[in-house]
Each structure stands twice: as structure tokens, then as C-alpha cells.
């Protein structure tokens, strides 16, 4: 739910511009407005129209949820709906998600929201959950917490230091891009989890690696995956904009053969 911002819209726009490391001159050129007008908007000397707020938000790549917050701070109604995922108008979205998840079998795939809460998953995701405690699997399940928690997936991640550095780096970039305090808190929590392996400051490829792999111990086997993230193109609903599909693919033939054989036996 979007709440009314108590701070002036101009100050909030200035923060987003500084977060994107743009000068007033660069933003004014991108948005086709005068630098003087932009300065007046940011200092509160000029009240921006709804169209101006949306234009600046677009060029600043502000997430839809925060665009609604900027509009409220400027005295306007939100422009983007935030439908519940079970709402009738998102039926096509739900069907598309489930089709992608089912089509990815026998490899794991899941859908998460902006806070990395699990929305849906296919049956193959169970191989990652074998050793997790019931507390971590109680809804709402946060998949990043689940992956790095010592009572979650972490004990079975062979390259925990490498994978942890990848996860924390990704979350750090996301929290900086969205300015979401919940993500900042989550990042601080995950950093406190123990790790008995060194964490590389820079992700360098190992022999044959083209992406950071997830090497996971499954029974007496070691499975290797790489992940791919997909989002909806041109979303106009806050809920849809914040959904992402995380798909895991086998990084070697042994992993592929193992998962296909287990699926066939099941």
C-alpha cells in the first residue's frame, strides 16, 4: 500500500536525481525542461504538475511504487494500480507465471516479489529445501534468507563464500536502486549470518565458468546451476512490476542427467 509522503515532492525528486548521479543539467536535457525550472521544482519554488512528476520519474527510472509516492507528495492521486495477485485483472499474469514454472521442470524455478518473498514455485524447488527448518519455510518465505541462513540452504552450498558474495552484491545494488528500507534491513541481516569460507571482493570466473554458479550438495551428489532472471516488460501495475522469475539451469551435464533421472523416477 502506498502512503502519503510527508516530505516535499521537490526534495524527493532531488534525492532520486542524486541517487542516479545525474546533474540538474543532464536531467533537464534528458527530460526536455529548463535547468531553471528543474531547480525551482527541487527547491519548492515551483509546484510540478502531475505530468512533470511522471516525466521526471520516467527519466530517473523510479520504480512504480515510488512514483505513486511522489505523486501523493505532490498532491496528486497515484497513477499506477497495485492489484492483488489473485485479482481477476491479473488472471493472464498468473497463467503466464504458472506456465513458465511448469515448463521449466525438471529444473527449479520460482517467482519472487521485490522483497524476495516467495510468490510461487515449481515442484523441483523442493531439492533446495530438503534441510531447511520449518521456521524458514513458514510463509512468507524470504528466499534470500532461506539461501544464506545456517539452518536453510547454506550448509549444502559447496561454494557458500562465492554464492554469498554474489547474493549480497545483488541485494546491495537493488537496495541502492530502489531506496527500499526493507531491503536495507534485509541486507544488514544477511551480512550477519556466519560463513566459514572466504568471500571474494570481485567475482572472478573459475575454470570453465561463465556465470557465478550455485554448487549445491544433494544427497551424495554435487549439483551445479546458473540462474536467469526474467521480469515483465512495460508493466503498468505495481504488483506486476515487482515480480521476477528466478530460473535455475543445470551448469553441467551431470546435473542435467541427475535431475532428469529423478524426475523420470518420480
Structure overview:
The protein is of the alpha+beta class. Helices cover 44% and strands 12% of the residues. The protein has helices spanning 9-19, 24-31, 35-43, 50-59, 64-73, 91-103, 134-137, 143-148, 160-178, 181-191, 238-241, 253-265; strands at 109-112, 118-121, 214-218, 221-231, 244-250. Strands 2-1-5-4-3 form a five-stranded antiparallel sheet. The longest helix is centred in the middle third of the chain and has 19 residues, at 160-178.
Q: What is the strand and helix layout of this fold?
A:
Layout: H1 9-19, H2 24-31, H3 35-43, H4 50-59, H5 64-73, H6 91-103, E1 109-112, E2 118-121, H7 134-137, H8 143-148, H9 160-178, H10 181-191, E3 214-218, E4 221-231, H11 238-241, E5 244-250, H12 253-265
Helix pairs in contact: 1-3, 9-10
Quick recap of the structure?
The chain contains twelve helices and five strands. It has 266 residues and is of the alpha+beta class. A hairpin with a 2-residue loop joins strand 3 and strand 4.
Keywords:
five-stranded antiparallel sheet; alpha+beta; 12% strand; single chain; 266 residues; 12 helices
Mean pLDDT: 92
Work out the helicity level: 40-55%
How are the strands of the biggest sheet laid out side by side?
Answer: 2-1-5-4-3
Instruction: Compute the number of helices.
Output: 12
- How far apart are the termini? 42 Å
Q: How are helices and strands ordered from N to C?
A: HHHHHHEEHHHHEEHEH
Amino acid at each position: 500500500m502506498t502512503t502519503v509522503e510527508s516530505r516535499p515532492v521537490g526534495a524527493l525528486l532531488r534525492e532520486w536525481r542524486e541517487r542516479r548521479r545525474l546533474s540538474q543539467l543532464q536531467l533537464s536535457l534528458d527530460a526536455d525542461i529548463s535547468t531553471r525550472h528543474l531547480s525551482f521544482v527541487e527547491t519548492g519554488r515551483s509546484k510540478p504538475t502531475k505530468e512533470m512528476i511522471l516525466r521526471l520519474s520516467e527519466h530517473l527510472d523510479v520504480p512504480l511504487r515510488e512514483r505513486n509516492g511522489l505523486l501523493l507528495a505532490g498532491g496528486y492521486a497515484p497513477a499506477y494500480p497495485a492489484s492483488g495477485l489473485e485479482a481477476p485483472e491479473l488472471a493472464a499474469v498468473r497463467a503466464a507465471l504458472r506456465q513458465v514454472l511448469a515448463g521449466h521442470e525438471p529444473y527449479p524455478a520460482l517467482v519472487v516479489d521485490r522483497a524476495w518473498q516467495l510468490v510461487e514455485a515449481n515442484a523441483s524447488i523442493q531439492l533446495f529445501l530438503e534441510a531447511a527448518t520449518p521456521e524458514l519455510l513458514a510463509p512468507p518465505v524470504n528466499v534470500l534468507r532461506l539461501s544464506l541462513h545456517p539452518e536453510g540452504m547454506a550448509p549444502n552450498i559447496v561454494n557458500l563464500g562465492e554464492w554469498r558474495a554474489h547474493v549480497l552484491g545483488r541485494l546491495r545494488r537493488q537496495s541502492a536502486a530502489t531506496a527500499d528500507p526493507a531491503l536495507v534491513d534485509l541486507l544488514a541481516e544477511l551480512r550477519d549470518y556466519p560463513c566459514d569460507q572466504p568471500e571474494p571482493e570481485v567475482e572472478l570466473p573459475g575454470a570453465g565458468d561463465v556465470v557465478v554458479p550455485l554448487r549445491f550438495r544433494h544427497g551424495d551428489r554435487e549439483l551445479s546451476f546458473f540462474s536467469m532472471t526474467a521480469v515483465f516488460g512495460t508493466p503498468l501495475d505495481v504488483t506486476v512490476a515487482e515480480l521476477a522469475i528466478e530460473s535455475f539451469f543445470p551448469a553441467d551435464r551431470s546435473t542435467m542427467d541427475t535431475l532428469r533421472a529423478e524426475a523420470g523416477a518420480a
